[in-house]
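Hi there,

I know you've been waiting on this one. I reran it after we fixed the sequence typo, so this is the corrected version. Both the input and the resulting structure follow.
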Amino acid sequence: MQKVSIYDTTLRDGSQAEGISFTVADKIKIARRLDEAGVHYVEGGWPGSNPKDKEFFKLMQKVSLKNAKLAAFSSTRRKGITAAEDMNYKELVDARTPVVCIFGKSWDLHVTDVLRASLEENLEIIRDSVAFLKKKNKEVIYDAEHFFDGYKNNPDYALDTILTAQSAGADTIVLCDTNGGSLPEEVAGIISEIKSRMTVPLGIHAHNDCGLGVANSLVAVEAGCLQVQGTFNGFGERCGNADLSTIIGVLSSKLGYQTLPKNKLKELKDAAYFIAEVANLPIPDFHPFTGHSAFAHKAGVHIDAILKNTRAYEHEDPENFGNHRRFITSELAGKMPLIQKARELAVKIDKKSPEAKELLQALQKKELEGYKFEGADASFELFMKKHLKKYKPFFTLEGFRIHTEKKSTGTAWAEATIHIEVKGEKRFSAADSVGPVDALDKALRKALIKAYPSLEHMRLTDYKVRVLDTKDGTSAKVRVLIESQDDHDCWTTVGVHENIIEASWEALVDSVEYKLLKDSKK
């Protein structure tokens, strides 16, 4: 089985995504998690570019990685000086990583218009940079920036740049589709044309500006590349980088390559959610392999077939990637999701049993009231457990109060106080925030955290309100959907009421109780 090394650049390229700002502590957490997942290389950042990355590499010298090699990133040395004189290279060496990755110009347009150097001068810059780092006993990965654009514009010169890096001692040459504008057939064709000239392994670094980051990475591997660079969840500048969580899934399950160690592939989903949690950017439900809906089935025909043979509507076993199969209740699904969920709760019923009929009637009554469980899987599981008398509450509400105020300055704020009973003990807490629901959420968790410390790893990621019958105006029922996430998963809960606070409370309680229910199964 051919091995393809996985080079993760979430901590550098991924951090350039809009909305992401990793702290040094965040970066260390992610580096450790990537190492646990079996990734071969973790690129930590550019030590010469900012104090945060410099501090990260300093602290990482005390961290022992078991599976991954830590890499520091930089460019080729500056024009007009030698690599030995470049202060960025002093920082690169002082980072004390076993691997360094440097990028250089492959596109003649960038050499003349951006670097403002001659084509021959650029080749000398590449040669000097790689040779200097090899003398420092580093494993050198050379990223050929804009290689495919450069090759399409001036193939002889683009090839000269990577041959220069190779002759200077680079251990791996990575071909970069930096603008993300190349098509798969172009990527595959160019690699096929040049690979006979290469004596060191090739890699691919693709961006997703045309939605082809994964496709270009896959065809590059099929054309002979032995390293794939990318980010978990596709985080990155503009439209993102090639998504390693999808690439690993496809290479391992469809193309027969060895990526992560076999025993680590089941950690793919957990690793993806952990990184998303630290980044504070949710994974789309429909994300391949790791998304919440990746193996979710809604249509009754599909569910019936899946129960008979999972291959009928699933391309892979979700458990291979740490995911799980879900059946979604809706008007399209009938009794099948109810029956399957009951079986998961160790209650055996079939389509003709009275229990199935009662469950369906109860579900239809809830839907008539405005509940929509299709998009609220966690509330659906709690509904089933309560109806089948398989559920014991984790706490009891005695009462809460919310006070909101708008000051003359224009600022608004809310304060929530709450009384609950948890594990036989009465507790009171209070919290404030800019909004009433957030204040209530904080007060509830504050009251529960001593009894249930795992709530520290849970957060609300989305809050949606829909008016169900607009003709009733401000007295209309509203449906509230709350999406929550922890280090391993995300889930959605629903509440319905004429009072928006009560609807929010229902969804909030379901969210917290589902988290505690999940943790109790471990």
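Quick highlight: The longest helix spans residues 500-520.

Best,
R. S.
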